[in-house]
Amino acid sequence: MRRLMLLRHAKTESHAPSGRDQDRRLDDRGRSDAAEIGGWIGRHPPFPDSVLVSHAIRARQTWEIAWEAMKDRVPRPQVELLPELYGADPSHLLQTIREASAADPRRLMLVGHNPGMHELALALAGSGDAAGRKRLADNLPTSGLAVFDFEIGDWADVAFRRGRLVLFVSPKLLKQTSGD
């Protein structure tokens, strides 16, 4: 069994001072939401063994803030910055996941961007949490987390429609349910 966690970066400023999209930083809400989702992850094992993070500033900040909120409860995962996650489509993201078989983590997290992350989540969800799948159909919002289990022994075997959505959560959903 393998677990995949897809985390979209948190809310950002509209424009970076440099004018480059990759340089956009988290705004106040984004920093708060990243900490909230990180704290939630830290209270809900199992935790990622390996984390692949887009090189964009907003994705790195999301991971750093989330990690800070969870690090006292979670073993330190292997973290790798991957420029190819920025702007990646679902097929490219799937290939990146399949290549994780070299390091063979049991639980893998990607921190990246829409539309690719949302489209990937929709393409992977073959079964699982019906209410979560319905909410996820609309959007993978900023700081949104989609968790999938795959009945496979190797990441190379991950395929579209083969994932079971375990849960879909976001800071907004956490506020609506007033807790975990």
Automatic annotation (TrEMBL):
Coiled coil: none annotated. Gene3D superfamilies: Phosphoglycerate mutase-like (3.40.50.1240). Residues 1-31 are annotated as: Disordered. SUPFAM superfamilies: Phosphoglycerate mutase-like. It comes from the Bacteria. Pfam families: His_Phos_1. Residues 10-31 have a biased composition (Basic and acidic residues). This is Phosphohistidine phosphatase. The lineage of its organism: Bacteria, Pseudomonadati, Pseudomonadota, Alphaproteobacteria, Hyphomicrobiales.
